[in-house]
């Protein structure tokens, strides 16, 4: 690879996606290299700019019709766009061109995972790992599927390996923290959510999850603070409103808890059923019991 590409790839790996787009747009003015379009397309995907991503991936494929990775990139863009037919076509084409392309199998795993086909997703992620046991994204993706299947021990193993290969990542710590929680290791769970928030203080999912653990530990003031921060990021999220309400109730702020809960009931009367709430929000029994106390006051 030439220096321009290597410099852009370094910026990509650092998460500077807008900088990648700027660098490669300048480079493409004088050199129409397939790799430039491919890497800029990946940056557009990260920036959720799918029309631009598809345009770049199309150009990469046109310039390098026999290069497997370009079809993987375009397949990813098609998948994110919801174009299933073209996504599968490109990923299968990538594997036909290079049967040992681990990223193509990993991308197929992502595709089937997002479509709810857990068994096929695990099969493809496992094939990717067989071809490249250093592919952290495949372990991460497989860990998510194992978690969705409630196979938390297998999920934890995959998350551990993904962290070893990918390094500290807020979303990964958040996912592993949830797995620790379902394995009843609440201390490890809280530690992971805290690590996630050290990396990304605006991670509303980690704030919510840590709030759940703190509630279970009886650390209501800490839970209140986390739910408050999370609501500042996602104000209308009912998961957070409900968690904030039961925490306030546990702290004795009954009127505010009732007001918040009534607001949810006004939008959906199923919130009058604490058992349903617990199933929908994946709450532990302690929070369901607190919710039931609030509901009985309405």
Describe the structure.
With 298 residues, the protein is mostly helical. The protein has a domain at 168-298: Alpha Horseshoe (Serine Threonine Protein Phosphatase 5, Tetratricopeptide repeat). It is 78% helix and 0% strand. The chain is built from 18 helices and no strands. The protein has helices spanning 3-13, 17-28, 34-46, 50-63, 68-81, 84-97, 102-114, 118-131, 136-148, 152-166, 170-182, 186-199, 204-216, 220-233, 238-250, 254-267, 274-281, 285-295. It is elongated. The protein starts with a helix and ends with a helix. The mean pLDDT is 96.
Distance between the termini: 66 Å
Helix/sheet category: mainly alpha
CATH class category name of the domain at 168-298:
Mainly Alpha
Low-confidence stretches: none
Shape descriptor reads elongated
Task: Please identify, by name, the CATH architecture of the domain at 168-298.
Answer: Alpha Horseshoe
Main sheet overview: none
Pattern of helices and strands: HHHHHHHHHHHHHHHHHH
Helix content: over 70%
CATH topology of the domain at 168-298: Serine Threonine Protein Phosphatase 5, Tetratricopeptide repeat
Q: What layout of secondary structure does this protein have?
A:
Elements lengths: L2 H11 L3 H12 L5 H13 L3 H14 L4 H14 L2 H14 L4 H13 L3 H14 L4 H13 L3 H15 L3 H13 L3 H14 L4 H13 L3 H14 L4 H13 L3 H14 L6 H8 L3 H11 L3
